[in-house]
User: Fold these one by one.
Assistant:
Number 1:
Amino acid sequence: MDTRSADAFDPPGTSWLPVSPRLASVRRGLAAALIGVPAVAAAVLLAVFAALPWALVPLLGGAALLAWAWAVVGRQVAAWGYAERDDDLLLRNGVLFRKLVVVPYGRMQFVDVTAGPLDRAAGVARVQLHTASATTDASIPGLPPAEAARLRDRLAARGEARAAGL
């Protein structure tokens, strides 16, 4: 019997846990600031130094770009997931370019939990995994702080147990 999965990004028997939808709020707020502020500034400058109808160009362009970013951020956040297995942690993300990272517990050196000001305001944190190889470092953004702390403690304990067995 062939037990291989037809989808390389969804191993059989894996229960994926999603990240918090509040991560989308943080990223959408950043997109609004990075797109909306320059669009409004350009519109004001065009209204002052050129004809008023030209001020609509950056506003409409900014609104279209912001609507596109809003949809993309929602899909990106929905694509994030992680799964704890017996010997490793799986992380997946990506909409256009999908990515699956497998981090063996025995390779973990330490686990960080970080949260910037916007993350704290939204009530989310990031779990950063540091491994023996810099190319396999991975992170899980947008976790509720309690889940981030639980995952940090669990991964650290599993990493110590696996490293002790080497």
Number 2:
Amino acid sequence: MSRIVPFETTLEVRDACLCLHVQRAARALARRFDEALRPVGLTHGQFSLLMSLNQPQPPALGAVARLLAMDRTTLTAALKLLERDGLVSSRADPSDRRSRWVTLTGKGLEVLAAAVPIWRETHAAVEAGLSEPGPDVLRAGLLALT
């Protein structure tokens, strides 16, 4: 059987595909932060979700979903786990019973406070390991893709 797509194309995609490289980097970063945050019982995704809720007023879930690039169904499932663990609480929005307010509980605030120094240390180590032009240029490039 002859190849319709030559092996050279496979090598081209392996070496050039931005999506593949971003996915691989995201998985490596996720593993690193998951390991670092394990002592406080969080994953990197849970840390980001708790941090997104750390606001003076409960944020709209749509805004949280957009910030975290999650669909509402995935966000709701993640919040249910955090609520089960006592890290967040939810209640109906008094002005619109169809909407829900999700806030950090006292326990959620304590866990988040314990996680921040771990995140800072891990994040600093990741940034220190980046070659020039450095993390600011990387962040700008990634933001340009969103």
